Amino acid sequence: MKAKKFVEKLMNAVFFFCGILAVGCVLLITVYMVASGLPAIREIGLGKFLFGQVWASTAKEPRFGILPFILTSVYGTAGATLLGVPVGLLTAVFLSKVAPKKLADRVRPAVDLLAGIPSVVYGLIGVSVLVPFIAKVFGLPKGTSLLAAMLVLSVMILPSIISVSETALRAVPPEYEEASLALGATPTETIFKVSIPAAKSGIAAGVVLGIGRAIGEAMAVMMVAGNVANMPALFDSVTFLTTAISKEMSYSSGLQRQALFSIALILFLFIMVINVVLNVALKGGKKGEK
Amino acid sequence: MGDKRLDQKLPPRRRAWDLTLRLLICACAAVTALLVAALIAYILLRGLPGVTWQLISSQESYLNNTIGILPSILNTLYIIVAALVIVLPLGVGAAVYLTEYASSRRLVRVIEFTTETLAGIPSIIYGLVGMMFFCQLLRLKTSLLAGALTLVIMILPTIVRTTQESLKTVPESYREGALGLGATKWYMIRTIILPSSIDGIVTGCILAIGRIVGESAALLFTAGLGLKLLGNFFEAMGGSGATLSVALYIYAMERGKFEVAFAVAAVLMLIVLVINFAAKVLGKRLKNKL
């Protein structure tokens, strides 16, 4: 009997340990990000670091301004969102409200597949098809550009937007839609004036999730954006926050390496803000449904 | 939900607007579906001809001037096995704690929030923290083991979430029955709860495998870029090696060998297709049980 009780207590402790492991991991990551990111910021100066327009980490007199990276990440993500959200949202509308069940059941796995394609494969197609195409159409010497990255990212965020929005649209109480139809609105008007507004917090969550994906994506962007530390311009070769880190990490040392960790800290802060917003949006959605 | 007779009574402007929006919805869905089909077809058509027996059964040889991706295939398998062996008990344990043990709602909320947060952190940040924590602090160097451990943190949320979902589907009466018959809590979990939620756990594993196969940014700095055969499982764990996704990146961007990269992409695509199919079949079984 004693042994049994001991085992019970032990398992209780083991499961408790597993349970708080996630908390431990987040703490570990946060501590590491802050501890390794702060020294360089302190040495360079926060203002100079965040708003410096020149990144020349290997120059004789190195300069570490990451404004180009921040703006590129923001513009790239914004562009991808502008392209991806309408297509994704309307596809979600199609899947949840318009398509016959059989057709929706065929299209949905395809969307899931889109989520499963590795980011390097997106990058590969981007660099071997999209980049030459852009170069040809716009008469550029090289097609690696912010535009190419935006296009690749807009495809990569589609699945998050579609699946979260579809779930939200399905959760709209049918009485709302029936009431609208009974008042004489057409099915399409009902979708745009009733269903979408009713599902807006869920849709917002999908969009925020997509934004998180886009801002954190490294490999696909590294392959198509050209990785030159320019201020962002649609047809120029640019560097994102993520690619700034991965490009130089393997050969960096000293202050340069520390500065890379500082970039990671900035990226981490972006993601944390997005996570909190996502949580609020999802909670708002749950309250709205009740 | 269309009713033709009603539509025709509408004033022409409203009808035109209605029709345009409806067309737009269908067009967006078509774009998404075509995009998926085109991506997959392109990868397979361009990549599959390059997938020869020699490519998948040998390693690179400068003497014979041949390229083989066997080391990367093995590395991928090894990392999958190592990561799953470690993450399964931890993730399932965490889910069991959340659904069966935790008594404080606040703690549950904190754990669920951090799990969500983990899921949102970009893989490049996992790569950096993995490099600092596993490779440097724990002195694992750049090795498959360090890569696998990094991925463990990354896929933990996936396993926790899917296991939790299926634990919730186990009827409360099973628990009451087991406890009423005098079983201890751990005995009940071991013999009743876990066996009846095995579908969800397996689905979680499959999704996790999908993420591991597609991951590259988190592995660049932790598992390294080696393309040589590393020997058996335990020897390989200590060596640095590229998985298929990382190998694709190396061949495409550092060696400029796009045809090899596309062959690797085709192999990856086939794996993704199989994984998606398996996850769907299992998901259906899970639903039928409900």
Automatic annotation (TrEMBL), chain B:
Membrane topology reported for the UniProt record: Multi-pass membrane protein
Keywords noted in UniProt: Cell membrane, Membrane, Transmembrane, Transmembrane helix, Transport
InterPro entries to which the protein is assigned, alphabetical: MetI-like, MetI-like_sf, Phosphate_PstA
GO MF annotation terms: phosphate transmembrane transporter activity
ABC transmembrane type-1 domain ranges (all copies): 73-279
Bilayer-crossing regions: 21-45, 77-98, 110-134, 140-160, 192-213, 233-253, 260-279
Subcellular location, record wording: Cell membrane
SUPFAM superfamilies: MetI-like
GO CC annotations, alphabetized: plasma membrane
Family membership: Belongs to the binding-protein-dependent transport system permease family. CysTW subfamily.
Protein name: Phosphate transport system permease protein PstA
